[in-house]
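Quick note —
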Amino acid sequence: MSSSECAAAGAPSARARRAVALTIMLGTTSVVLATTIVNVVLPGIMRDFAVDQGRVQWLATGFLAAMAATMLTTAWWVRAYGLRRTYTAALLVFVAVSLAGGFATSIDALILSRIAQGAIAGVIQPLAMIALFEVYPPEERGSAMAAYGLGVVLSPALGPALGGLLGQFFGWRAVFFVTLPLCLAALALAPTRLACFEQGDARRPVFDGLGFTLLCAFLLFVLGGLALAQRHELSPAGLALVVAGTLVCAVTFLAWELRRSHPMFDPRVFRDPVFAAAAAVGFAYGMGLYGSTFLVPLFVQTVSGFSVLEAGILLLPGGLLLAASIPPAGRLTDRHSPHYIVCAGLLCFALSFLLFAGSTAHTGFWSLAAWIAVGRLGLALMIPALNAGAVQGLPLAQIAQGAGALNFVRQLGGAFGTSLLSLLLQWRLAVHQQETAAGLEATTRAFHDSFVAVGLVFLSVLWPGWRIRRVTGTTD
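Predicted structure written out below.
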C-alpha cells in the first residue's frame, strides 16, 4: 500500500496514529538532536584538534547546509521508494556516519562525518510532517504538529544540555553515540508501525540531478564566501565572484525547477500567500534558533566562566518548559487562527535575546536560564501554529512539496544564521577591541551586539507572521 493509499484508507485508529507518530518521531528526534548537541563541546574539540573558531564552526554550518540541500530530495525518495523504505535506509546510514564521527581522528574527518549526518538528517526530517499529515484528520493536525514540534524544537533546545553532561563526564566523542539507541528503536518499530507506507510509485521518477547540483553550488558559494570573509581571505574580486555565482545558481535553479513536471523544489507553492508568509517566518526562526544555540554556549563559557556542564544545564529549564508548553500550543492552534499564536511566539523569542543583550559576566545562572525560558516559550507557541498554518491552503498533492520547502527554508536560515552570527561576532569583537583595552569587556559587547541582531531578526518578521491566517477551506 502506498502512502497516498494509507491516507485514502481514511480510518487509521487512534492507536495506529500514535504508533506512526512514535516511530517517525524517534528518528526525527535523533537527527534533530544531532544538529545542536555538539555546540556546547566545541571548545573541547578546538583544544583536541588545535583549531580556531572559524574552522570548528563548520561542524554546525556544514551540518545545516547539507541538511538544507537534501531536504528537497525527500519528496523524490518517497515517490521512488516509499516512506517506510526511505526512513529505514536513511536511519541505517545515519547510524553508520554517527559512529564514524565518534571515532574520527582528525578535524577533517569529523567535519565530513557531520556533513554526512546533516545530509541524512535532511532526508529524514520532512518525513515526519508528511506521515502525520496523511494519517491525522484536519481537525487534529494542530495536535499532530505539536508532536512534530517536540522533536524539531525540543531536540535543539535540550541538545546542548545533554551535550554538556556527556562532554563533562565522557568527552566530546560521546555526543555522537547518544542518539544511537533512539535510532535502533525506530528501526525496530518501522517494519510494522509504518506498514501502510509500503512502496513508492511503480514507475520510479527521474532524479533531478541538475537541480540538486545547482542547489549545492548555491550553498557552496554563499557559505563558502562567508567562511572566507570570516578569515579575511575574500578580496573585492572574490566578493564579486561569490555574489555573481550565488545569483546565477539561484536564478538558474528556480528556472530549471519551474520547467520540470516533477520538480525537486516547486517554487509554485510560494504562490499561496499564507505559505509564503510562513516560509519567511520559518527562515527567520531557523536563523534565530540555530544561531542562538551556537552563541549562548560560547557566551556563557567565554564571558560568564561556566563549565561545559553548567553551559549545558543552563538550557535545561527552558527545554522542560518547552516540552510542557507544546501540547497546549497545539490545542490552541486547533482552536484559533495561527497568526495570533505565531506573533506571540516571535515576540517572546525577541524579548529573550534583547534581555541577553543586557547581561554581564556577573549575571546570575538563574537569570540567564529564565531569559532562555522566555524564548523557549515563544518557540513552543510558534512551531505547531507555523507548521499547521503553512500548508493548510495547499492541495493534498503539494503537501509533501510544501513540507520539504518549509523545512528547507528553516534549515537554510539556520545555516545562514550560524555563519552570519559567527562573522558578526568576530567583526564586533575586532571593533570593540580597538575601543577598549579590556578583553572581557570587548568580548561581552561583541556578544551583546550579536544578541541584539537575533532579537531584531524575530521582530522583522512580525508582519509576515500576522499574515498566517486560518484558511476557511482547502483544496483536496
